[in-house]
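Exercise 4. Each item below gives a protein and its sequence. For each, produce the structure-token representation.

Item: DUF5615 domain-containing protein (Planktothrix serta PCC 8927).
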Amino acid sequence: MPLKYLLDENVDLSYKVGLSKIESDLIVWAVGEPHCPPRGTLDPEILLWCEEYNFILVTNNRKSMPVHLIDHINEGRHIPGIFLLNVKLTIGQNVDELIFLAEVSFEGEYQDQIIHLPHSYVLGVE
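Answer:
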């Protein structure tokens, strides 16, 4: 599995538990954990961290994250991607979607993109 996920600090940690329980090989870290950005880190700094360590950011930040991504790209930087959780899906459905994407995606597929879940439904896979 080429994808690694960093959960931002506003994502419920039950996502990490669910992802790790279903797919133990998947690397899922969360802001505030050792070796991750500390809680309270500003979004632009989190994007820098994700770029450096090749993690896709999993977030529910729909308002400011697109602006931060544009600024990041305009600075000549890149990010492996940002996955936006869907508030209309259950935690379990979002977890299933994140696992699906980790299993079928190739490295670099989501570079500099914001992907709104559920992405598999967009692809016609249910």
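Check: The chain has a mean pLDDT of 91.
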